[in-house]
């Protein structure tokens, strides 16, 4: 695959090389072969209209998705060595979802460098979140093919490190969102939260919240606010459902 990509497309004009080198500096990688970066930016609509320019970035998207998953997994394991597999998986999903990738692509100003066909260009393709997210994965694949795994891991640390540091200082998981996504995917149902008890003096309130799925009570959680109690309940419910799905014992 690497040989096919390296041989994909003609030599780049000087102006395009200059443009791509400026982009590469923002990406944090010095390319030995700028044609790899050029292909990563070549959407299928452009390649279809101008096949003489070389292959599209579709195979690179596929490779970049795998490289990103590996690099993020390695980064999370190093940053959160005590976290469970489920917590790490949810954390990875929060980092590499399409919305987050598109946001990062915008920060890197990737859109203006994309090669798009006339149809995509006329439909504001440079601003499409899905297109930007795919292009970012393709760009990571180009960095991997050009510099190897260590280069790709360094780039991922540069891209996601600030976000990871922010999350490390906050409750990492949004358990209510994670539970909502889980129950929608498995049962086509959304959980409901019910305040069961509010106790303690005004300066030290305690709340107990129950989360239900249809008529079934899944879990109860406590906290100094209704929001935190609901998050605690959602965490326990998610652990229970994941345990049941995996054949493990229930937490309840």
Blueprint (SSEs and pairs):
Blueprint: H1 2-6, H2 14-27, H3 34-40, H4 44-49, H5 58-79, H6 85-96, H7 98-107, H8 118-122, H9 129-147, H10 149-168, H11 175-187, E1 192-199, E2 206-213, E3 216-223, H12 226-245
Antiparallel strand pairs: 1-2, 2-3
Helix pairs in contact: 3-9, 5-6, 5-9, 5-10, 7-9, 9-10, 11-12
Question: What does this entry look like structurally?
Answer:
This protein is mainly α and 252 residues long. It has 2 domains: 167 residues, Ribonuclease iii, N-terminal Endonuclease Domain, Chain A; 71 residues, Double Stranded RNA Binding Domain (2-Layer Sandwich). It is 61% helix and 10% strand. The protein contains 12 helices and 3 strands; from the N terminus they run αααααααααααβββα. Strands 1-2-3 form a 3-stranded antiparallel sheet, covered by helices on one side. A hairpin with a 6-residue loop joins β1 and β2. α5 packs across α6 and α5 packs across α10.
The count of strands amounts to 3
For the record, what CATH class of the largest domain applies?
Mainly Alpha
Fold-level CATH name of the largest domain: Ribonuclease iii, N-terminal Endonuclease Domain, Chain A
CATH architecture of the largest domain: Orthogonal Bundle
Shape: elongated
- Give the biggest sheet: 3 strands, antiparallel
Biggest sheet: strands side by side, in what order?
1-2-3
Amount of beta strand: 5-15%
- Count up the domains: 2
Based on helices, strands and strand pairing, what is the structural class?
A: mainly alpha
Helix content: 55-70%
CATH superfamily of the largest domain: Ribonuclease III domain
Termini separation (Å)? 50 Å
- Rg (CA only): 23 Å
